[in-house]
Amino acid sequence: MPKKIVINDSELPIMKAIWEKDGRTSTELLSNVTGNKSTLKTLLGRLVERGAVRVEEINQRTYRYFAVVSEDDYIEGQRKTFLNKVFNGSTEKMLLNFVKEENISADALRRLVDLIEG
Amino acid sequence: MPKKIVINDSELPIMKAIWEKDGRTSTELLSNVTGNKSTLKTLLGRLVERGAVRVEEINQRTYRYFAVVSEDDYIEGQRKTFLNKVFNGSTEKMLLNFVKEENISADALRRLVDLIEG
DNA sequence: AACATTAGTTTACTACAGTAATCTTTGGTT
DNA sequence: AACCAAAGATTACTGTAGTAAACTAATGTT
């Protein structure tokens, strides 16, 4: 199995910017993320190192950055981790908790039902 | 605001054991958790240090452990973090994703609707 | 051409999670 | 009383996240 590529919290804003628009140069990219530029550059470098992001060299001073790990991959990983860790893998328990604590309306649920049933 | 008490992943099994039954001695407690005893003892100590767990001394060699951070507190923290981090705080997006990816049935949702509407 | 600006690389430091061995008591056993 | 087993405390080591300064190279500006 290809070992799971981790994206940690400080790297996430950078990934989000890449997901938002693939193939930007680092300048474009990082101008869309807040924080110390040097730090951001380090984080971007680590993402590349670990294979979450792919670089394409345009010329000696311009690189374009592309997501290797997709947002869906990321969400899936987070969802599964969360579900297992907090609700022992039970979607039922999870749903119940969200509905109760996040005040999800009956209407919102009905809309979901409609969506499923087409 | 009372600063948030973090419970990290390796500590979680210990907390779960405490939530399951409050007030056990460390021996009872840790026998319900797998892993190297020395490690577990360290983790339990850190939980006490950080105030997630409270100790009551019975006598010089026996202590009982009680949860200060409740399971609900923990779940709430995790839920909020997850929601913000992965779905930018949108319960709608989150629900949609779970329903799609975790194959939640229309029936399960209807049961939730009933529950809400009483 | 000299220089400042800026992109990208290297180095670095702290905090903390994860893991566990060792040391120190102290209560139980022979 | 002597000793052992076990509880708990102390110490410790590695890896990685988070943060950022310093260095280097290349480019555009005057």
Q: What is this entry, summarized?
A:
The first copy, chain A, is of the alpha+beta class. Chain A has helices at 12-20, 26-31, 37-49, 71-87, 91-101, 106-117; strands spanning 24-25, 53-59, 62-67.
* Class of secondary structure makeup of chain A: alpha+beta
Strand content of chain A: 5-15%
Do you know the CATH topology of the largest domain in chain A?
Arc Repressor Mutant, subunit A
- C-alpha termini separation of chain A: 36 Å
CATH architecture of the largest domain in chain A: Orthogonal Bundle
* Shape assignment of chain A: elongated
Q: Please give the CATH class of the largest domain in chain A.
A: Mainly Alpha
Uncertain ranges of chain A: none
Biggest β-sheet of chain A: count, sense, barrel?
A: 3 strands, antiparallel
Strand order of the largest sheet of chain A: 1-3-2
Instruction: Output the number of helix runs of chain A.
Output: 6
- Report the strand count of chain A: 3
Radius of gyration of chain A: 18 Å
Topology (elements, then pairings):
Two copies of one chain form a homodimer.
Chain A: H1 12-20, E1 24-25, H2 26-31, H3 37-49, E2 53-59, E3 62-67, H4 71-87, H5 91-101, H6 106-117
Antiparallel strand pairs in A: 1-3, 2-3
The structure holds a DNA duplex (30 and 30 nucleotides).
